[in-house]
Amino acid sequence: MAPQRRHPAPTAPMACSLLLLALCLAPPAHGSRVQPTATTSKAPPAPVPAPPPPASKATTTAPPESDEFLAPHNKARAEVGVAALRWSAGLASAAAKTTSQQQRQSGCAFADMGASAYGANQGWASYRARPGEVVGSWVAQARYYTHANNSCAAGQQCGTYTQVVWRRTTDVGCAQATCGTGATLTLCLYDPHGNVKGESPY
Ligand SMILES: *[C@@H]1O[C@H](CO)[C@@H](O)[C@H](O)[C@H]1NC(C)=O
Hints:
It contains 4 helices and 8 strands, in the order ββαβαβαββαββ. It is α+β, with helices and mostly antiparallel strands. It has a domain of about 120 residues: CATH 3.40.33.10. The strands form 2 sheets. The protein has a 6-stranded mixed beta sheet. A hairpin with a 4-residue loop joins strand 5 and strand 6. Helix 1 packs parallel to helix 3. The radius of gyration is 16 Å and the shape is globular. The two termini are about 25 Å apart. 2-acetamido-2-deoxy-beta-D-glucopyranose (NAG) binds next to loops. 2-acetamido-2-deoxy-beta-D-glucopyranose binds next to loops. Keywords: Signal. It comes from Brachypodium distachyon. This is SCP domain-containing protein.
């Protein structure tokens, strides 16, 4: 399956847009490594009354902010009876390296994580989005997901949600970068990766 990627422009015409990106991984074929493909989906209008002023430089998320990422992940997991994730400084550092690179080289556009061994959820906002808000937008896909038949409603995307609640994933690390336009790129990396096609997350 060919990857479909939609890279937001550095200067988005739409105010307060929040885009999501999840990796969907194919099952291993004949013992070979899984071949990841990416899908994109557009979130409903973000419930933010007024965007804060643009930041002047890139920021990365340090361990004290890890709870802002971790808590909404683990709340969503607890709701479906899946064990909590633990924070990985190594994954957070790898995520920060990628978001910094995107900040410097491509105006905070989505990173191409197709070759990564980790699961990857991304969020792009035209404003400075808080970690909890971005993870919340991923978890909000749960409304389109039916566990009984492991399917997503037609025309919807569930991949960022299913990675959040993927049972075999044990570790997560995340980072954000903010561009001069005020846009925020958020990336969480998951180990082991989820979203293996044909498998149920939990
Ligand atoms: C899965 O179940 C839901 C809820 O019953 C239903 O709306 C949907 O069509 C089903 N999807 C598939 C692919 O069977």
